[in-house]
Amino acid sequence: MIRIVIAEDEDIIRSGLLYTIDWLSMNAVVVASAATGSEGLEKIKSLQPDIVIADIKMPGMSGLDMIEAAQKAKIDFIPIVLTSYSDFNYAKSAIALRVFDYLLKPVDEAKIKEVVLRAQEQLAKNRIAQKAERAESAGASPSPFLPPMVSDNPYIAACLSAIEQNYAEHPNIETLARTLKVSASYLSRLFKKHTSMTFLDFLNTYRIQKAVSLLADQKYRVYEVAAMTGFSSYKRFYEVFKSYAGFPPTELAKQDGKQKS
Question: At which residues is 4-aspartylphosphate found (predicted)?
Fold first, then answer.
C-alpha cells in the first residue's frame, strides 16, 4: 500500500483531501497530514512516505522548502505540489526539486487519481532499478520482480477487504484475528506497522470518507448517513465526524445547499 503525507495550511482543502478522496481505491493510505511546512517535514522524517502532496506556498516554511529539506535529509519520496499560483519563480524552483506533477486548486479527484497512479508506476520503476543495482553490487543477476508490496501481505489484505466491504457492520481486529488464526495483538501491531494507523482509526477514516460522499449526494438525512456508515447513534457519528473531519456533518449538509439533519 502506498503511503502518503499531505501538507496543506487551508483546513477545508486539507480535510477535503483527507475525507472526500477514495484513497483505498488507489491502493493508498494517508498516513499523516500537516498544516505547516515544518510540521510536514517532521511527519516525512518520521513516517518515510512514498508520496508527499504539499501546498506550494504555506506560512513559514513553504511546501517547496519542506520538500527540499526532506530531500537533503536523503528521504526518498515522490513530491506532488498543490498550487493556485502561476508564478514562474515557483515553477523554476519546483523543477529543480524534481517535483513529479502539479495539482491545481480546487483539486479534482479524477486528476488526483491520475497523478497518484502515475506516481505509483514511477515508484515501481524506482524500486526495480534499486533492486537491480543492489543485485549487481552483490554480483547477482538483476531480478525483474519488485519486493512484496505491503498490500500483498495476506493479513493486511484481509483487514483492508473487511473494512472496504463491511465498514458499516462493525468489523474489529479481534474477530479478524480469530478468522486469520493469529493473535489480536499481533494483527494490531502488524496493521499499525504497515499503515501507520490503528485498525479503528483506519476504519473510522474510511467511514467518514464514505459519509462525506453520501452527504454530498444530498439523498439522505444526516442521521440516515450515520446508520449507513455503521454508527450506533447520531451523537456518536457527530462526534467522530467532527473529530476526524474538523467540522460537523451538519455544516457539510448546509454547504451543499440543504440542511438534512
Answer: 55
